[in-house]
Every structure is written in C-alpha cells, then in structure tokens.
C-alpha cells in the first residue's frame, strides 16, 4: 500500500529537473589593434599640434597692425577650438571602440580644407614656412587625414569597432578596502605636521626684527 501511495504521489507531482550548473564564462581582455592605436594617437597628437600652433601664432596675429576684424578673429578661434576638440574626441572614441564615423568625417573635412587651401595658394601669392613649394606643403598636409582614413578602414579596426565599446572593470575603492591603513596613515601625517609646528625652532631675532619694522618712523 505504501508503495502504491508513493507511486500515485510521484505521478501527479511535477517532475524534478536538476538545475544545470551555472557556467562561468571568462572573457579574455581585448587587445588594442595597432591600427586603432595609431589612428587614435594621430588624432590626439594632431589636436595637440593645432593647440600649440594656435597659442604661438595668436600673439603675433593680435599684435599685427594688419590684423583682421574682431569678429573674424573670434570666428576663427571658435572653428579652431571645434577642430581641436573633434580631432581629440574622434581619436579617443576610436580607441574606446565607440565608433569610427567621427574620425573619418573629420578626415574627409580635412581633405576638403587642404584642397581649398591649395586652390587659394596657387591663385594668390602666400608666403610658406621655410619657402617650401605649395604642392610639397599640400602633400605634407594630406598625410594626416589620408593616414587616419587608411588606418580606420583597416579590417582590424572594423572588427574592433564592431565589437563595441570596451567593458569597464569595476575596481574596489582602496580607501574602503583598507580603511584601517588609511586611518593610520592620516593620523601619522597629522601628528607629524603637529610635531613640526610645535617643535620647530623659532628664530631668535624674529620678534625684534618685526618690532623694529613697526617702530621705525
């Protein structure tokens, strides 16, 4: 009878399915491709170079007797600041894996700008640094945007961007982890500063010198 009752209870009860063991997937850290590092560094270094050129040439432009109108100078500074921010931001976004559209857009805009400047330079007489011929100077200026486009269009760069932004590894706060050590360190620093303030020797002639300063007519 007991066997039949157990059989009936097992018939109407839900079958027990053993829970599968939770699989722990360990993702290997992503390694930056050389093309991504190179393109990102070109963008950041270009921003630094533009900032350096702006800082060195702004003084001469403002002190020149034939300087342009104020609104032209202000507009040029705004455009230059936007160019610097876009160069640095696009390089950082590419290294982070957020995308390469911004970097390629900035590179295409730089190509158009260099082409326009070449047309203007060939039609007008513009002094070049070091008396470099205008075509040579234009080719040197084209190296940066063309290099960024080639590096960003590489297959490794496309795979890096397709994988998405890098995951941020959350690290524990060292102060929370080592609270006792942080407290002891702070106490030692405070006691050391107090000991220096109390035990430091005072110059003997300090008081008389200060009194003579105030008593002189």
Structural description of this entry:
The chain is mainly alpha-helical and 217 residues long. It has a domain at 34-162. It contains 9 helices and no strands. The longest helix is centred in the N-terminal third of the chain and has 30 residues, at 34-63.
Q: Helical segment tally?
A: 9
What about the largest sheet? none
- General shape: flat
Percent in helix: over 70%
Written as H for each helix and E for each strand, in order along the chain, the element string is: HHHHHHHHH
Structural class designation? mainly alpha
What is the number of beta strands? 0
What is the CA-based Rg, rounded?
A: 34 Å
Q: How much strand content do the residues show?
A: under 5%
Cα(first) to Cα(last) distance is: 122 Å
Key features?
9 helices, single chain, mainly alpha, disordered C terminus
Q: Concise description?
A:
71% of the residues lie in helices and 0% in strands. It is mostly helical.
Topology:
Layout: H1 2-12, H2 34-63, H3 70-96, H4 101-123, H5 134-152, H6 155-162, H7 174-177, H8 179-199, H9 206-215
